[in-house]
Design goal:
Layout: H1 8-34, H2 38-44, H3 49-55, H4 75-82, H5 97-110, E1 118-123, H6 126-134, E2 148-152, H7 157-171, E3 174-178, H8 184-189, E4 195-201, H9 213-222, E5 227-230, E6 248-251, E7 266-271, H10 281-285, H11 287-293, H12 295-299, H13 305-315, H14 318-337, E8 342-346, H15 356-362, H16 368-372, E9 382-387, H17 396-403, E10 409-410, E11 420-422, H18 433-439, E12 446-450, H19 456-467
Parallel strand pairs: 2-3, 2-4, 4-5, 5-6, 10-11
Antiparallel strand pairs: 1-7, 6-7, 8-9, 9-12, 11-12
Helix pairs in contact: 1-4, 2-5, 5-13
Length: 470
């Protein structure tokens, strides 16, 4: 086939024009998807007939692109693509078609039923997602004071370690912990001219603690800084923080998003035009796109295309799984609350939970009002309980109960289709030390339970039998 030659400037113009067509088609697909219900978005995302026929040989499902690099038609296309002047995936460390379909779907789910525009970057793990989200705001130079950030103290153990060890001890960046998540005066007192962002995990792992996102977001914005929320344990099926004013949402997609347990991944979703005391206009306008094309490209925390498609396939049933697991968790909570060998149950659906009103405000099954005529509050699949001990420093009963489990897995996992139990003090939060665990309100006799999709009666039977061994 003879190729028609054009001069270089004309070639550049042609590829830029082609890029505009691709961008316009993406806008068309986003507009269409914005009119769908949550389950439809989770099932289809932005992948449609035109995408399938033009780019993927008609494949009805999103294909896995294992090639690390993209080939180009000619010199001009490569120049335009590498200058980021047209949509392109270039190299899997920067982007990949399989990964892009997952990112676009997550963006739509995180902004569901809002006018917000957002962009998502997926990473090789949840911890990578947190680091990718916070570090652009923590840049330092000799002309400015040491930056700090404010965070809820009840966070996942890996997050605590990253903040204290990798940021505070390695880099000298100050972390200011919030002890009472609901005390807005405490939040305000921790903020000064050098505070770069606010961070909160909700519901937290394993304390199932909550905070008022709207109020904290307002406080952040009044200080020209973003609010970053880790909503891993809720997922977009129960809560979408951007709807309530959050600027950036991080997820450990390894959990409920990838509930089959075959992938490790994380995601960062940011709305457009975030506030910040640092960074250029491009960063503030489209944080995730800027991150993908620059620091993400340079640091290389990319997700495998295989994992992207595995997670995308799990994501399609997110809402129904979260609903079943949450309803089962409430029944398990009620069983444990009435058991004589359990001292305390911590679950947002209980009236005894100190933040029950916050849970009722934020944790709602998406689209439930379309089924029942009113919103249905569901409170997630994770709960924590305390086994009665004579001496909590020597948790003999807790250990006896834990080793007596038969159906329920003893592991550190979370958000799986299989029910999993762990002892945070000796697992996920071990490295925090006694002082760190005290700050996070984690006791040696705490058991974190992540409810799966088994029949709830079988889960309760296993718990009952293990408790009988005490």
């Amino acid at each position: 086939m003879e190729i028609q030659k054009v001069n270089h400037s004309q070639g550049i113009e042609n590829w830029i024009a082609e890029g505009k067509k691709l961008a316009a088609d993406r806008k068309r697909r986003i507009k269409r998807a914005k009119g769908w219900k949550f389950d439809t978005i989770a099932t289809h995302g932005l992948y449609d007939f035109r995408q399938a026929s033009q780019f993927h040989s008609g494949s009805i499902m999103e294909p896995i692109y294992l090639s690390p690099a993209q080939a180009f038609s000619d010199y001009d296309e490569m120049e335009v693509a590498l200058a980021y002047e047209m949509p392109s995936w270039i190299y899997t460390r920067i982007a990949n078609p399989s990964t892009l379909y997952l990112e676009e779907t997550i963006s739509l789910l995180e902004t569901y039923e809002t006018d917000a525009e957002a962009c998502t970057v997926v990473c090789a793990s949840g911890m990578s997602a947190i680091r990718s989200a916070i570090e652009p705001f923590l840049i330092r130079d000799n002309s400015s004071p040491v930056p700090n950030f404010v965070s809820t103290s009840r966070v996942y153990g890996g997050t605590f370690q990253q903040f204290t060890m990798r940021q505070m001890e390695d880099k000298g960046i100050k972390v200011r912990w919030i002890k009472n998540n609901l005390d807005m005066e405490e939040w305000e007192s921790k903020i000064d001219a050098n505070t770069r962002f606010l961070f909160g995990e909700m519901p937290s792992n394993p304390a199932v603690a909550l905070f008022d996102i709207e109020k904290v977001a307002e406080l952040a914005h009044s200080n020209n800084i973003p609010l970053i929320v880790d909503s891993t344990c809720a997922s977009p099926a129960l809560m979408r923080p951007i709807e309530f004013g959050a600027d950036i949402v991080v997820q450990s997609a390894s959990k409920i998003m990838a509930a089959s347990g075959s992938s490790i991944a994380g995601s960062v979703t940011a709305r457009m035009n975030i506030p910040s005391k640092v960074g250029n206009d491009e960063m503030k306008h489209d944080f995730c796109q800027w991150m993908k094309l620059l620091p993400f490209r340079d640091n290389g925390p990319a997700l495998s295309p295989i994992n992207s498609i595995l997670i995308l396939n799990d994501l399609r049933s997110l809402r129904s799984r979260v609903a079943q697991m949450s309803r089962s968790a409430m029944k398990v909570t009620q069983f444990l609350e009435s058991h004589p060998k359990i001292a305390k149950v911590i679950y947002p659906g209980l009236s005894s939970h100190p933040e029950a009103d916050i849970a009722a405000k934020y944790l709602t099954l998406v689209d439930s009002e379309k089924e029942h005529g009113h919103p249905e509050n569901l409170y997630g699949y994770m709960l924590t309980f305390e086994v009665i001990e004579k001496d909590t420093s020597t948790p003999v009963n807790t250990r006896t109960f834990y080793d007596g489990l038969d159906l329920i897995w003893r592991a550190t996992d979370l958000g799986r289709v299989k029910t999993v139990a762990t002892i945070p003090a000796i697992s996920t939060h071990l490295q925090q030390g006694d002082a760190g665990r005290e700050l996070a309100a984690i006791q040696p006799n705490h058991v974190r339970l992540s409810i799966g999709i088994e029949h709830v009666e079988d889960i309760i039977t296993d718990l009952h039998r293990a408790l009988d061994q005490i």
